[in-house]
Amino acid sequence: MRVRILVINGPNLNLLGRRQPHLYGSMSLAQIEERLQERASQLQVELKCFQSNHEGAIVDAIQKEGADVDGIIINPGALTHYSYAVRDALEAVGKPVVEVHISNIHAREPFRRHSVIAEVVLGQISGLGWRGYLLALEGLVEMIREERGHERAPSPPA
Hints:
By secondary structure, the protein is an alpha/beta fold. It has helices spanning about 20-25, 30-45, 55-65, 85-95, 130-150, and strands at about 5-10, 45-50, 70-75, 95-100, 125.
């Protein structure tokens, strides 16, 4: 059975590549999603990407798509720090989730250092730039496959 992963990006992440490149890098969200799709293909994983600047749309996507996927990768953006609605939706779908942040939220302003999402996710990758998404994908897929009793994920090409 093929692993299916939902990748969710929250508010302002559609501005990646233009917004504060000293913090978030110069790669656009489309470029990150392209790299994720390439790696998903290598891992034989089905990947669906979603971005919204609206909290309710993100909650709707989690509820709608969450039932049909094996795991979720989420960068909630600013919603990380206050959206109990996103947190509760992730908890309700009961799927494994990895939280990703391009910048190191723990080294930024005090209000950014707390994640209300963190207590309902398997783990958090923060501060590794766009590469954090790839690490989240690889780790999440491997954990899902181990849970299913399958072999490890295919290795990346040399």
